[in-house]
């Protein structure tokens, strides 16, 4: 059985939201779908322990089929757990009746990858729909929808139809609609997967605003690590229906403990050997070869201008071969491939200086 690996304590400088104040709590939750026509039942989730702290943005990342959709659908009763229990605001919702779920769903907005707007309704009427269903008076609907369209930046599109909007605008309508009943929690089901990178950024910024300014807790599922990196406070990595790693984003992304997490992280920080170098790199040094180092920036140490420091203080020429440096919570995070002299004492001086800066450096080969 895969025990969840807890990441280290909160990263330096991150602003952790106390896990002690949960708004949603999964306790040993399992979900099996019955088999069809003689086939075995499908275990989509098992042994899920997950806490969503009040006010946080929590991301669940996993590959296709890992169980993400199932997990998020359990939170608004679109699926029912077959083991364990789920607590929302301290209420055990596991055995709720459909009527109980209807009331609960007003507290929980949801947005979708393909927006799920009604094509025959205008933007205004799409956002108004949950309020109409809740029986809100007309004047309240008018003021609430107007306020929400301003919040999501679509005040000028209120009479448009979904077909007249871009993908990003459609998702803004989805967000406004999800917020119409003033939920405490917003569930996001691959909300940016159908959008281009620039639009993704703007939707993520809007979600962050919704979280920070309205205090709405967000639980999102994604297969994209940049989404986690951009806006989440905490992350759970899910594989084959189990959480294999969970913790605050900074710790999990900078020090992944599980191979699946490491593979996701590699996608944003890993640096491949450039092809021209991969063909030439040797495992044994020949006379005159330079040493190729991979320097890993873990964010806690690396605000120092490393390369210039190596060049200026120890007088060693450093060639940058490839690199990928990103930032989490404003701190550099990623890796650089450099070549430095192989002879001593230069190499020892370089490795010593990197050690002083608390940067991880590995020798990955030699090139002429
Ligand atoms: N209604 C269902 N009936 C039977 N099996 C299902 C049902 N829904 C999901 N499953 C199965 O449960 C497992 C988890 O599916 P789920 O959709 O939760 O994963 P996912 O991580 O969201 O995948 P994707 O990113 O591709 O949507 C899969 O093996 C899937 O085939």
TrEMBL record:
<keyword id="KW-0067">ATP-binding</keyword>
<keyword id="KW-0547">Nucleotide-binding</keyword>
<dbReference type="InterPro" id="IPR045865">
    <property type="entry name" value="ACT-like_dom_sf"/>
</dbReference>
<comment type="similarity">
    <text>Belongs to the ABC transporter superfamily.</text>
</comment>
<protein>
    <recommendedName>
        <fullName>Cell division ATP-binding protein FtsE</fullName>
    </recommendedName>
</protein>
<keyword id="KW-1278">Translocase</keyword>
<dbReference type="GO" id="GO:0006865">
    <property type="term" value="P:amino acid transport"/>
</dbReference>
<keyword id="KW-0813">Transport</keyword>
<dbReference type="Pfam" id="PF00005">
    <property type="entry name" value="ABC_tran"/>
</dbReference>
<dbReference type="InterPro" id="IPR017871">
    <property type="entry name" value="ABC_transporter-like_CS"/>
</dbReference>
<dbReference type="InterPro" id="IPR050086">
    <property type="entry name" value="MetN_ABC_transporter-like"/>
</dbReference>
<keyword id="KW-0472">Membrane</keyword>
<dbReference type="Pfam" id="PF09383">
    <property type="entry name" value="NIL"/>
</dbReference>
<dbReference type="InterPro" id="IPR018449">
    <property type="entry name" value="NIL_domain"/>
</dbReference>
<keyword id="KW-0029">Amino-acid transport</keyword>
<dbReference type="InterPro" id="IPR003439">
    <property type="entry name" value="ABC_transporter-like_ATP-bd"/>
</dbReference>
<dbReference type="InterPro" id="IPR003593">
    <property type="entry name" value="AAA+_ATPase"/>
</dbReference>
<comment type="function">
    <text>Part of the ABC transporter FtsEX involved in cellular division. Important for assembly or stability of the septal ring.</text>
</comment>
<feature type="domain" description="ABC transporter">
    <location>
        <begin position="24"/>
        <end position="265"/>
    </location>
</feature>
<dbReference type="GO" id="GO:0005886">
    <property type="term" value="C:plasma membrane"/>
</dbReference>
<dbReference type="GO" id="GO:0005524">
    <property type="term" value="F:ATP binding"/>
</dbReference>
<dbReference type="GO" id="GO:0016887">
    <property type="term" value="F:ATP hydrolysis activity"/>
</dbReference>
<dbReference type="InterPro" id="IPR041701">
    <property type="entry name" value="MetN_ABC"/>
</dbReference>
<dbReference type="InterPro" id="IPR027417">
    <property type="entry name" value="P-loop_NTPase"/>
</dbReference>
<keyword id="KW-1003">Cell membrane</keyword>
């Amino acid at each position: 059985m895969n025990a969840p690996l807890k990441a280290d304590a909160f990263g330096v400088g991150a602003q952790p939201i106390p896990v002690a104040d949960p708004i949603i709590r999964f306790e040993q939750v399992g979900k099996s779908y019955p088999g069809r026509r003689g086939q075995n039942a499908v275990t989509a989730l098992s042994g899920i322990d997950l806490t969503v702290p009040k006010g946080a943005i929590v991301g669940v990342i996993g590959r296709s089929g890992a169980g993400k959709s199932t997990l998020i659908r359990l939170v608004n009763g679109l699926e029912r757990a077959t083991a364990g229990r789920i607590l929302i605001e301290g209420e055990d919702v596991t055995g709720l009746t459909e009527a109980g779920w209807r009331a609960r769903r007003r507290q929980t907005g949801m947005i979708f990858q393909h927006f799920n707007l009604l094509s025959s309704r205008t933007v205004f009427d799409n956002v108004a729909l949950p309020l109409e269903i809740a029986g809100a008076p007309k004047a309240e609907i008018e003021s609430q929808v107007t306020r929400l369209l301003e919040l999501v930046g679509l005040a000028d599109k209120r009479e448009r139809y979904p077909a007249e909007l871009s993908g990003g605008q459609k998702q803004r309508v989805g967000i406004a609609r999800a917020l119409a009943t003033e939920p405490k929690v917003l569930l996001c089901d691959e909300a940016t997967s159908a959008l281009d990178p620039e639009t993704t950024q703007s939707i993520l910024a809007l979600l962050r605003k919704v979280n920070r300014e309205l205090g709405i807790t967000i639980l999102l599922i994604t297969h994209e690590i940049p989404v986690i990196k951009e806006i989440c406070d905490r992350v759970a990595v899910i594989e084959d229906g189990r959480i294999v790693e969970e913790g605050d984003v900074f710790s999990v992304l900078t020090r992944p403990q599980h191979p699946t997490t490491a593979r996701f992280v590699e996608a944003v920080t890993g640096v491949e050997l450039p092809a021209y170098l991969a063909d030439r790199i040797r495992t044994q040094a020949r006379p005159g070869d330079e040493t190729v180092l991979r320097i890993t920036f873990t964010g806690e140490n690396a605000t120092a201008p490393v390369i210039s420091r190596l060049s200026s203080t120890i007088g060693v020429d450093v060639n940058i071969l490839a690199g990928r440096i990103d930032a989490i919570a404003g701190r550099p995070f990623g890796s650089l491939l450099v070549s430095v002299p192989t002879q001593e004492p230069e190499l020892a001086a370089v490795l010593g200086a990197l050690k002083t800066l608390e940067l991880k450096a590995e020798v990955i080969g030699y090139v002429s």
